[in-house]
Write a structure and sequence with these properties.
By secondary structure, this protein is of the alpha+beta class. The termini are far apart.
Length: about 375
């Protein structure tokens, strides 16, 4: 006998009954006539690793500083665990912040740096020692306890700053570009360590970054910001596969955009004619009227060389390889379409470099499936 289908648990942000742990309601921050943050509302749930992602000047750090209490909103309210903290000073909020510069005291040892906040709160010595030892062990820096910041590496300083932020057991940890000072290899390793640490502790993390790969690797969800506003909030998969605008599509990773207009619809697919001179057929659930201008977005790794190129084929383009970037695991090909745009295609290097089929100046035909891209109207 077949039992009932297993129910899939909803993520907190998908559950209408779930209460957000951090709630931002119509928060605005003005400096004179300039809106650094413009009418932002956001709900973040307990245990999330949430990233504010955007280019420099988009307002993400200003928003983070308002959560910490270091900046006062010009309008709007901020709630943490159901309590309105908008007018509460930083030292009375259940929040700690890790700064991009780490801000370690150079004259103090690692141990004293981590302990500093607990001493300010006048915790008993025995409890301070226990908490500091716990954090040093958790972050694998116990052997550095007597050293000073200038005697340890950048990655080790980052761990000390993180231990100092976590030792106070905050309900919410705010991180401002936490990995920005690390080299690429160390940054990649630390991303996974930070995620594992956050999952073990169960603390809600909100981080600010301009590094898309960093946000994609670490986050449960991402808010993409531009000009002081949030333009899309979704999971890393949702942001990458289903951007809601050109801005998000072009900011997250690489993408090919083919302009056109809708000329027909059959079921959940639309037929688009446009700049590449050939029809495109794409899955699209939006109710778009015929003649609507759109852009078809296709990620470089979704393109593949055609097995059979036809003169009337849909979702096919042909051009000449102008540039090749060999990155070891993949190669990136820039292909110039005749009387059209430059197209980027990424192929995995399964075969040795000397056996790759494509080379400079070679003509290549490419195609993609109707479900391998997205139709954008903004």
């Amino acid at each position: 006998m077949v039992g009932p289908p297993e129910r899939r648990l909803l993520e907190p942000w998908q559950d209408p009954k779930a209460q957000p742990y951090l709630r931002i309601e119509r928060v605005t921050k003005k400096y004179g006539d300039v809106y650094a943050v413009d009418d932002v509302s956001l709900a973040i749930f307990q245990g999330e690793f949430f990233s504010l992602l955007g280019s420099s000047g988009c307002g993400k750090t200003t928003l983070l500083r308002m959560l910490a209490g270091l900046e006062q909103p010009s309008a709007g309210r901020i709630y943490i665990d159901g309590a309105d903290v908008t007018d509460i000073p930083p030292y009375r909020r259940p929040v700690n912040m890790m700064f991009q510069s780490y801000a370690l005291f150079p004259h103090m040892s690692v141990e004293r740096n981590v302990e500093f906040g607990l001493r300010q709160e006048r915790l008993p010595r025995a409890e301070r020692s226990e908490r500091v030892a716990e954090m040093l062990d958790l972050l694998k820096i116990a052997e550095l306890r007597k050293r000073r910041p200038h005697q340890i590496s950048g990655g080790q300083r980052q761990r000390v700053a993180l231990a100092r932020a976590l030792v106070k057991h905050p309900k919410l940890l705010l991180l401002d570009e936490p990995l920005g000072a690390l080299d690429k290899k160390l940054r990649e390793n630390t991303q996974f360590e930070l995620v594992n640490l956050q999952e073990r502790l169960g603390i809600t993390f909100v981080t600010v970054t301009h590094d898309q790969e960093e946000a994609m690797t670490m986050s449960t969800r991402i808010a993409v910001m531009d000009a002081g506003q949030i333009v899309q909030v979704d999971t890393p998969t949702g942001i990458y596969e289903y951007p809601n605008s050109r801005l998000v599509a072009e900011f997250i990773g690489s993408i090919n955009l083919f302009d056109g207009k809708v000329v027909d619809r059959v079921g959940d697919e639309v037929l688009i004619e446009g700049a590449i001179g050939r029809p495109m057929r794409m899955r699209c659930l939006q109710p778009l009227a015929l003649g609507t201008p759109v852009a078809v977005g296709v990620r470089p790794e979704k393109l593949r060389p055609c097995e059979r190129y036809t003169d009337d084929g849909v979702n096919q383009v042909r051009g000449t390889v102008e540039d090749i970037a060999y990155l070891g695991d993949v190669s990136i090909y820039h292909v110039r379409i005749a009387d059209g745009p430059m197209v980027e295609m990424t192929l995995a290097n399964i075969q040795p470099r000397t056996e790759q089929a494509l080379t400079w100046g070679q003509e290549v035909a490419m195609e993609w499936s109707p479900t391998s891209g997205v139709v954008l109207t903004d």
